[in-house]
Amino acid sequence: MPLADCLLHNGRFVLPRTVLEGGAIALRGGRIHGIFERGDRLPSDLPRRDLGGALVSPGLFEFHIHGVGGLRFDELGSGPAGGDRAARGLDAAVEALLRVREALRGRGVTHFLPTIAYGESSLEALAAAVEASGLSEAELPGIYLEGPFISPRRAGRIPSESIREPDSRELGRIINLARGRLRVMTLAPELPGAREIEARLSAVGVLPSLGHSDCALDRITLPEGRFSITHLFNDMSPFSPREEGLAMLPFLDRRPFVELVADGRRVNEAALRICAAAVDPERLMLVSDAGRSVPEPAGRPAPPPVVGAELLRNWLKVTGASVPNAVRMLSLTPAQALGMDDRRGAIAIGLEADLVVWEGEFEAVREIL
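The structure assignment produced for this chain is given below.
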């Protein structure tokens, strides 16, 4: 339900380019109707809510996430076809999706793209669960698929049975299995036929994302329209003095959106600081890639995932970035990558009121409005 009309005042509102200290925002019909600085004349016809100086940001967006809380999206499964067992399997998958949604909201995340490596049964089960969940397109815009058209040399943890040569008929089958909910697909641009795949993805509203690739930049043709790069530095041809690896692209070309796993483990802190200094915040997206199967050394337990607010705090600590830029990389920039920024992603007049009220400096969620 839309938030009731009201005036939120005495807050620290994280706008796209600044933090509005002691300001106020007017909400009408579930949208942001006005933004007021300290000392401005405020509307007199709205009930007021005093935020006590709390930080308020747009809801965070987990653009690339495989799971959380022990659940992986490629393990949802809908059970054997037919009968009650299939129905129970679908019910369990929906319940799992809703549990993830609540876990993410506890970290300030109000939008997420469930991400899987390609597998026919896992894609079919996830698409069915998304469709049956009742979650809005704003909360769950669609599915992120890694593969199947990727390089075996840069597959990472994607199993060999999930890898295919680019094929337009196979792509058509994938789109049908996803029930029209495919929003992002990772592919390797050096593979024969990749250009045709990129063009068809763009034509049906799917964002092509370059990754799991062994390409040299001087031997490929980049997509003409909107595109992104999957988890920069990981599972791709490297930043090298001898070959123009895919990891060099964001530092040479300002067009692509760029995913960066900002947990300080998958990408080291020095590399995070380099990206903060050299990649436009309007193109950089902080992602967790949480739930991805990554082996740990023998006897060492897997560390807890760095998701949502934790990701934001780590980026601020490591890079010294401004709060508006850091929040933007987890809200407005992902929304722009998916073409949702005309509705959500920022505290701006006319956009839907999708707001998180924080305790301290993004330490905990006080309330989601």
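Interim note for the steering committee: The chain has nine helices and 17 strands. Residues 78-83 have pLDDT under 50 and may be disordered.
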